Amino acid sequence: MTEPSRRRGSGAGAAILALTQGDPAGIGPEITLKAWLRRDEIGLPFCLLGDPDLMRRTVARLGLSVPVERATIADAADVFRRALPVAPVGDAAAAEPGKPDPATAAATLASIEEAVRLARAGEAAGLVTNPIAKHVLYQAGFSHPGHTEFLAALSVEPGRTPPHPVMMLWCEALAVVPVTVHIPLAQVPGTLTTELIVKAARIVDRDLRRRFGIARPRLALAGLNPHAGESGSLGDEDAAVVAPAVAALVREGIAASGPYPADTMFHAAARTGYDVALAMYHDQALIPIKTIAFDEGVNVTLGLPFIRTSPDHGTAFDIAGKGLARPDSLVAALRLAARLAARPAEAAA
Description:
- The chain is α/β, with parallel strands linked by helices.
- It folds into 2 domains: about 1-160 and about 315-349, 3-Layer(aba) Sandwich (Isopropylmalate Dehydrogenase); about 175-290, Isopropylmalate Dehydrogenase.
- About 35% of the residues lie in helices and about 15% in strands.
- It has helices at about 30-35, 50-60, 75-80, 105-120, 135-140, 145-155, 190, 195-210, 235-250, 270, 280-290, 330-340; strands at about 15-20, 45-50, 70, 85-90, 125-130, 165-170, 175-180, 220, 255-260, 275-280, 300, 310.
- Strands 3-4-2-1-5-12-11-6-7-10-8-9 form a 12-stranded mixed sheet, sandwiched between helices.
- Helix 8 packs across helix 9 (about 235-250).
């Protein structure tokens, strides 16, 4: 077996997180500076990959007491004690707050690509991504459905198929996974299959074991229809698609149960019965966690060969540059990445 300290993509031995710049016209620069002010809460230093001048302009605009220093990933941990370390990546980001510009897309993508390279090379313990705006990237020719799919494409080993990334939304009180994600609601029944549910659940089970240290994760699967189909009177997908997935997972030794009516799965008493809920579509998953932890939720990507977390919010162009953005979700994402990176290397094999 390869020594853990040399295992590609493990981040083993690295003592710093790579933070991507995100869309420079969004709130990413502001919440990054505010997160540095709360650096004692995080557990690991972080290095921003982007434009140092953008960060200095943001400091001046908002009147924040945050020194900014150019750095490399190698010396960023030392810099972090006294200043926000910024490793220059990509072109200068000339966008104004609240005014997204497709001309900045190349720099946004370069930051993500460099973060993945550092994580896979073991030079960063993991990566945390600031929010991007897909519509801005699409105008510049971006061809991936979204951020997560781009990360998966960057993770491909030569001769291998891309990993299947799974979105998990996490807070201390709840972890939830949407099996189908960014598709219209009308397309969910036709997209949802037993095989897709099983594939996602296997990845969830594996990563909760190896990254979160849960010896036997309990997976609760929501039904697709109201009342989980009401014995077929409200739709047959729960009996025909979801229940067979639960049965297949149980046969594999995975602690899966359901399908359960989604409207009774997320109150406090119900949450004590599982470690993660698998929802069948986007809003079924995101409404409960954003209700419980709107400012502290974290987006964790499972199934990748490195740690990746992100704030559970978007670019918020409407408040960018106004000093109103709260860094809570970014701080939570950095803290969770540091926590996952601190697990023994053998546990993340």
